[in-house]
Amino acid sequence: MTLACLTCGEAGGPPPAASPVWLFDLDNTLYPASAGLMDAISARIGEFISRQLNLPTTLAHSVREAYYGRYGSSVGGVLRHCQVDAGAFLKFIHDLPVENYLSPNPRLVQLLESLPGYKHLFTNAPADYARRVLQALGVEPQFEGILDLHFGGLEGKPSPAVYEKVLAALGRPASACWFVEDTAVNLIPAKALGFRTVWLTPDGRTPPAYVEYVIHDLAGLHAIAA
């Protein structure tokens, strides 16, 4: 199966009205944070900031963390405040051998197959990187399409305008869309628009009011979908 590129307008038409739509975040959601892939990407973002702004490494990582806290995405902060070529920046930070961090996950394949409805990725990463991650996990055939950073015109989560664009592309009401995400603040605009919000968190933190469901691993989706 070839994933539809919603960035390029190849959504393949809206899913049937009776079918739910599952939107999944990618990094630290389809695979655990312990895999270390996002740590490697974060290190590359810090390296890029250090070179771009001529800052010591420790200070560059402080800037990266500040961007994440302010915008919900370190990438978003760099694109706003650093005069960079977006394509070169995104290529540099995602140019990693994902197969060194991830391996095929038959349990994840089975879980995704068992969920009724259509599955899309909704990620702040570029689509080419997202495809490599899906391939490394062995789950690419389970997804209908990718809504990536370019889909949002380099404006990613948690920008409310991007969520509205997602709904327009899918052609479905927000109430038919389930959004599974490990970064809680990215669920705020989703809840405001009427998405069904699912927070994936490994610990026992009290969920904020905008979180409808809490799961500690993706297997918890079975109970929600039942």
Description:
The chain is an alpha/beta fold. It folds into 2 domains: about 5-30 and about 100-225, Rossmann fold; about 35-100, DNA polymerase, domain 1 (Orthogonal Bundle). It is about 40% helix and about 10% strand. It contains 9 helices and 7 strands. It has helices at about 35-55, 55-70, 75-80, 85-95, 105-115, 125-135, 160-170, 190-195, 220-225; strands spanning about 5, 20-25, 120, 145, 175-180, 195-200, 215. The protein has a 7-stranded parallel sheet, with helices on one face. α6 links the parallel β3 (about 120) and β4. α1 packs across α2. It is globular.
Produce the secondary structure layout:
Layout (H helix, E strand, L loop, with lengths): L3 E2 L15 E4 L12 H17 L3 H15 L2 H8 L4 H9 L11 H9 L3 E5 L4 H11 L7 E3 L12 H11 L6 E5 L6 H6 L2 E5 L12 E3 L5 H5 L1
Parallel strand pairs: 1-4, 2-3, 2-5, 3-4, 5-6, 6-7
Helix pairs in contact: 1-2, 1-4, 2-3
Which keywords apply here?
single chain; 9 helices; 40% helix; 12% strand; 226 residues; Rossmann fold; globular; 2 domains; DNA polymerase, domain 1
